[in-house]
């Protein structure tokens, strides 16, 4: 009896495997999720098509296909977020069971929030947290990469290939070469997507992308000080202070409670 039962279960498993192989495919591991998020977040690309400024995520299937008619409808409704040949940046990555959501240039910005009028500062004049003072930003959108079943075992380079019908990631290689020539502490910080003391504007942009807000002032000594703000309250916010074009202070805070300052850049030998 037990032998017949075992044989029946084995036949059932083989039948299910043949009918729906995705049930038995290797699933995305935790380490692979981390690699995908780090490998895609803050990545730049050049548009191969016009990207609509869409309210709903624009669907791209894992085989690289997308519904051009739906994209055209979104384009007529809300206009373009980026045109053919424009450079865009992936600013957020969210992995779900069978799809990966990508915010492009900050994502679609709708109506205002309660914190649009909140002002923050870092040892100087306060600055508005939100830059959405003149209506929604016109250059953000959201794309969703959809799989036919659970996301299989893969890496960020494979996802770039799936998105290649819309995004060209190869043209960003010049920035990668630039980063490779930087001092090791700065190179490491860029890879970890954080700012450290000693960076310049371009290096912070490579590491963290465009800030939510900028402010500039001159000190009594005649130095030019610039403050960049990243993040939205009540979540984590990062304040990057430049003096004469170099980062002199980095502070993280949650709703202005606590904070840390980055250690100084090690002296080159």
Distance between the termini: 76 Å
Number of domains: 2
List low-confidence stretches: 1-25, 111-121, 125-138
Strand order of the largest sheet: 3-9-6-5-1-10
Overall pLDDT score: 78
Helical run tally: 7
Biggest sheet: strands, sense, closure?
A: 6 strands, mixed
Element string (H = helix, E = strand): HHEEEHEEEEEEHEHHHEEEEE
**Proportion in β-strands:** 25-35%
Total number of β-strand segments? 15
Q: Percent of residues in helical segments? A: 25-40%
Radius of gyration: 23 Å
Q: Would you kindly provide a brief summary of this structure?
A:
The chain has helices at residues 2-19, 30-40, 68-78, 156-162, 173-180, 184-191, 201-208, and strands at residues 44-47, 51-52, 58-61, 80-82, 87-95, 99-104, 119-120, 127-128, 141-146, 167-168, 213-218, 224-230, 236-243, 246-254, 257-261.
